[in-house]
Design brief:
This protein is of the alpha/beta class and about 325 residues long. It has two domains: about 140 residues, Response regulator (Rossmann fold), CATH 3.40.50; about 150 residues, Rossmann fold (3-Layer(aba) Sandwich), CATH 3.40.50.2300. The strands form two sheets. A seven-stranded mixed beta sheet has the order 7-6-8-9-10-11-12, with helices on both faces. It is elongated and about 65 Å long.
């Protein structure tokens, strides 16, 4: 028998022999769930998810080829998070990305076994999400967004750009596990800076409007917006109110400044999604969340909106300008 005929016969035999296939092995399609705190149409949320998808593609995970991505977002009330968390986990994902401590807590309640990678969590140990930063344990790990000392820095920067500030409203999320720690760090430095602190629980836009009106009655008012999920949902209203009441304000994330706010000091909120893609990749390849240490931000960034500063008749100190990203 000629060599070509012999190889052809072997090919036919392989196609019919039990347990042997002539086709290449098919690659398993993996499923990734995302429970996000921005509505799908929000430009900032789209940037974050685009960064995640881009980094996953660089690591070889492409939608329509070897991964399916299930996305849920935009739930305002903390109690209402249970339903989308259960729906997401009912699709049997291989790993889930959760944005923020409240969302991650809802995912953990829905499942103790599905791997969860988080972003934008301030105090995962104090919030009971992981056992420790070095050894998370359980099914959850990820990337923190702040140390509580950063919260004190917000008040220091605000006082530097607006020295006459004497009363500061602090908008926080009453449902967030880290809200008390952020407020506590601000209150700890307030006496040294000669500032009175008024906490505002961001229940809804009308409540924020009413409380900010109280702060703005006298001169010397200011505003700090902490890393609050509810505040980010209502950020357009908050920025407009700060402008209306002539309140110098500092925010936890750059997106507020892009949308017209005065200034922000915080981590690269988009970059954390790129870093999360690496953990998702490692989990899909067999590593356990319990063995992947929780990581802190690589750097913090100061952003200043000069148009907002001019509207408030503020002179930005050179010490801030030299270290800030300036938006004209």
């Amino acid at each position: 028998m000629k060599r070509r005929q012999f190889l052809g016969a072997l090919g036919g035999l392989a196609a019919t022999w039990p347990g042997v296939s002539a086709a290449q092995p098919t690659r398993r399609v993996r499923r990734i769930g995302i429970l996000h705190d921005y509505v799908e149409a929000d430009p900032e949320g789209r940037l974050q998810i685009a960064a995640l998808r881009d980094e996953l593609a660089k690591l070889g995970w492409v939608e329509g080829r070897n991964i399916i991505v299930d996305f849920k977002s935009g739930v305002e009330e903390a109690d209402a998070l249970r339903a989308p968390a259960k729906e997401l986990l009912a699709r049997s994902p291989d790993v889930v990305l959760g944005a923020g401590g409240t969302i991650v807590a809802a995912l953990q309640k829905a499942s103790k076994t599905v791997p969860v990678v988080f972003v934008n969590v301030t105090d995962p140990v104090g919030g009971g999400l992981v056992s420790s930063l070095a050894h998370p344990g359980g099914n959850t790990t990820g990337f923190t967004q702040f140390e509580f000392g950063i919260s004190a820095k917000w008040l220091e920067i605000l006082k530097e750009i607006a020295p006459d500030t004497a009363r500061v409203a602090v908008i926080r999320d009453p449902t967030a596990r880290s809200g008390g720690g952020q407020l506590g760090a601000i209150q700890a430095v307030a006496p040294r800076l000669g500032v009175e602190v008024k906490p505002i629980d961001a229940g809804d836009a009308e409540e924020i409007k009413r409380d900010l009106l109280d702060v703005s009655h006298e001169s010397g008012g200011g505003l700090i917006v902490t890393s609050s999920r509810l505040a980010r949902i209502h950020r357009e209203e908050i920025i407009a109110l700060a402008e209306q009441h002539h309140l110098p304000a500092i925010y936890a994330f750059r997106v507020y400044v892009s949308d017209g706010g005065l200034m922000a000091y915080g981590p690269d909120a988009v970059g954390s999604y790129r870093r999360a893609a690496n953990y998702i990749d490692r989990i899909l390849k067999g590593e356990k969340p319990a063995d992947l240490p929780v990581q802190a931000p690589v750097k913090y960034e100061l952003t200043i909106n000069m148009k907002a500063a001019k509207a408030l008749r503020l002179t930005v100190p050179q010490s801030l300008l030299t270290s800030a990203e300036v938006i004209e």
